[in-house]
Write the structure tokens for this entry.
Amino acid sequence: MDWGKANRMSKLFRKDGHCFYLPIDHGYFLGPTSMLEKPAKTIAPITQYCDALFVTRGVLRSAIDPSYPLPIILRVSGGSSILGDLTDEEVLTSIDEVIRLNAAAVGVSIFIGSEHERQTMSNLAKLVNLCEPYGIPVMAVTALGKELKDKKPEARYLALAARMFAEVGAAVVKTYWCENFEKVTEGCPVPVVIAGGPKCDTTREVLEFVHDGMQRGAKGINLGRNVWQAPNPPAVARALKAVIHEKASVDEANALFEKMDAAAKAKK
């Protein structure tokens, strides 16, 4: 691995090899999502617990201070809204923009099993070809189209997608947690990070699937809605950090969450 790419990867993963990415890119297809109407305000109390921010160039320029201390993973694919076919994506951001914005990595969605599987896989390949000469890592994002959105992702499908992304040249794979998650991580030769998926009812549910995934080979998380749409986002983020970087059990992390949450309520 070239020095530049190795340097960027070292910023994306801590010395323990783990990571906590905070995605706030949802507006690229959902519009002004609840709690992301003002992104800078939403993330201000959370980022102290995170390792990188996953964001579009528009929000990066309009809402994120250039002195922001965390590395940026730039969302570069899109083109369709929630009103249309989300699988019909293209790469929307040039390599010049990626370099101009000093991104540590880029992220692109791929819809395996959808009508646009080949197109989105081609997006990944083209992006790797563009970024590799500059030492910029590409994060492949496992995305579910309408064909699979109502089905619980299974290890066989997620393992297929993750391995395909790695074979094409992705440096990191973002995918959903599932039962028997080791089947996904063991078949993927690059780091796998867990996506948030649907919003959970309780913080403990979030901690449980994250802890299970970490025990089964995940290198970290890329969680958005289950953090910043929670009633107490800083407490959730702190508990997740404990699981990711401090090897906390679910009970230990949940106790930490409850302590912070109770302290915050006592101040009100």
